[in-house]
Amino acid sequence: QWVYNILEKKAEVDRIVHENSDPCNGFVLVPDFKWNQNQLDDLYLIALVRRRDLKSLRDLTAEHLPLLRNILREGEEAVTKRFGIAASRLRVYLHYQPSYYHLHVHFTALGYEAPGSGVERAHLLADVIDNLADDPAFYQKRALTFALRADEPLFQKFREAGR
Question: Any signal peptide, and if so, which residues (predicted)?
């Protein structure tokens, strides 16, 4: 509901850094709650897509390339304009598995080791775009490795299944 409240401008309107209102290829860029916005070393923003039919990386196909390219280009431009951080100093990525199932993209300062920004969970948006441009169904076919903590319910399900 938190995501929908932002997208519908029922909450956090004053925190919006950038907005593209296109219903298909638009998104809202807001600071993540992990960032206190007092310094740029740990900059952390989230781009929430307007579409509600995209839950995770697994849903993406070549059809979504305009959306993904908008997020990358406009998001980087907005961060540079608002915070003075060049695109080359940003890490822009998606999590798999995500912490919530509404497609969103993380923008963090390159030097900041944000939770989940490591190779076992983060997929760089530029790589996702390239993969989908090469193979429109890349994420429907690809095996994706991800780490799970021992206390996560999904880990327990794998364990019960003998995996």
Answer: none
Domain 1-161, CATH class in plain words:
alpha beta
Q: At what angle do helices 65-83 and 125-134 cross, to 10 degrees?
A: 160
Report d(CA 114, CA 158) in Å as an integer: 26
Known catalytic residue at 104: yes
Report pLDDT digits (tens) over 102-119: 999 999 999 988 877 777
More confident site: 52 or 112: 52
Rounded distance, CA 53 to CA 24, Å? 10
Specify the residue for token string 């925190």.
15
What pTM, to 2 d.p., does this model score?
0.90
Phi-psi region of 131 (alpha: psi -120 to 50; beta: other; left: phi over 0): alpha
Q: Please report the beta strands in 32-140, taking only residues with DSSP state E, as ranges in sequence order.
A: 44-49, 90-95, 104-109, 122-124
